[in-house]
Amino acid sequence: MIGNPIGHTKSPMIHGSFAEATGQAIDYRAIEGSLKCFADEVHAFRKAGGRGMNVTAPFKLQAYALATERLERAELTGATNALKFDGDRIVADNFDGVGLTNDIQRNLGFPLKGARMLVIGAGGAVRGALLPFLAQQPTLVVLANRTETKAIDLAKQFAGQGHVQGCGYDELAGERFDIVINGTSASLKGELPPLPAETLRGAKLAYELAYGKGLTPFLRLAQHAGVPKLADGVGMLVEQAAEAFLWWRGVRPDTRGVIDRMTIPLV
Ligand code: NDP
Fold first, then answer.
1. Name one Pfam family in it (predicted).
2. Do residues 35 and 109 both lie within one domain?
């Protein structure tokens, strides 16, 4: 795993648990990268025998650029969170979106097919989630973002994949959704996106992409609006790790025990 800062990462623990459970021998470490030397750091890791690498902020775009091959999800998102090394080939994929989709559907039990979804934010994580979401055939995905043009542009880019619309927060008044996802980074600063509280009424699930923060301002708003199920992004984190592990090792680890160990009660 390469990122900066990287001290907080849970990935070595997650992959260590997967390796133990599946009988795989791995040496998974956190590397604190630098923007100037990112490519050299990746090449040094490969030369030392590294077979695959997770990539986190702020290197997801650089990893995309460094890859010699990009799988569809990486290509469409313009970012990668996982690399695989095979001789001279550097293959890029992006498992964030599939991890989120798996968590919502398999772990939390909310089918996306036929759902009306609101996704707030239009940054890298939301971009990565759109293709896996739309593949499940929701009735509608509305993207709302503080910088409205980003949401509109993103919706246009994915319009061929399903029913997706971009807008600003003001246009949400009076709309109702089954699933509301906070894909902004507002919670990392303890902030609340300017989401009209009424937009959450009637929703069945409120999902916060940030994890380990307990009841964030967004989840608190959802709780007050009476949303019956609240979740944070710990399941997404573990599910994307499981997809990467499968890609690298050919075996899909069970995620339930790891998610349970990492879950912080949302109180
Ligand atoms: P980006 O920096 O790419 O995008 C940030 C987004 O948040 C932008 O749309 C920005 O709007 C919006 N935003 C930031 N602050 C506010 C605010 N105060 N009010 C309203 N909107 C705001 O971030 P990422 O997409 O990489 O990450 C988004 C979230 O997803 C983070 O919380 C991150 O921790 C989480 N994440 C979780 C993962 C997991 O495995 N659980 C994996 C990856 C990310 P604007 O365009 O107007 O600036």
1. Shikimate_dh_N
2. no
The ipTM of this complex is: 0.99
Residue 55 is given by DSSP the state: B
For residue 122 and ligand 1, the question of a CB distance below 6 A is answered with yes
Please check the confidence at residue 83 and state whether its pLDDT lies above 90: yes
Q: Establish whether residue 232 lines the binding site of ligand 1, counting it when its CB lies within 6 angstroms of any ligand atom.
A: no
Does the residue 267 lie in any domain? no
Q: Kindly report, residue by residue over 20-52, the tens digit of the pLDDT.
A: 999 999 999 999 999 999 999 999 999 999 999
- Structural domain containing residue 186: 97-232
Cα of 248 to ligand 1 centre, how many Å?
A: 27
- How many distinct structural domains can be found in the chain? 2
Q: Taking 90 as the threshold, does the pLDDT of residue 190 lie above it? A: yes
Residue from 99, 10, 2, 98 nearest 57 by CA: 2
145 CB under 6 A from ligand 1? yes
Q: Which residues are catalytic?
A: 60
**What's 50's domain CATH number?**
3.40.50.10860
Atom index in ligand 1 nearest the CA of residue 187 equals: 32
Chain centroid, CA 177 distance in Å: 20
The answer to whether the CB of 233 is under 6 A from ligand 1 is yes
- Residues 211 and 174 reside in one and the same domain: yes
Is 111 found in the same domain as 44?
Answer: no
Alpha-carbon gap, residue 115 to 259, rounded angstroms:
25
CA dihedral for 85, 90, 96, 101, sign (positive or negative): negative
Which two structure tokens, joined as six digits, stand for 109?
């039990």
Question: Best mutation site among 185, 209, 262 for ligand 1, i.e. most ligand atoms within 8 A of its Cβ?
Answer: 185
In this model, does residue 77 exceed pLDDT 90? no
Percent of the chain scoring above 70 in pLDDT: 100
Residues 38 and 151 both lie in one domain: no
pLDDT band at 181 (very low <50, low <70, confident <90, very high): very high
Contact 176, 202 (CB under 8 A): yes
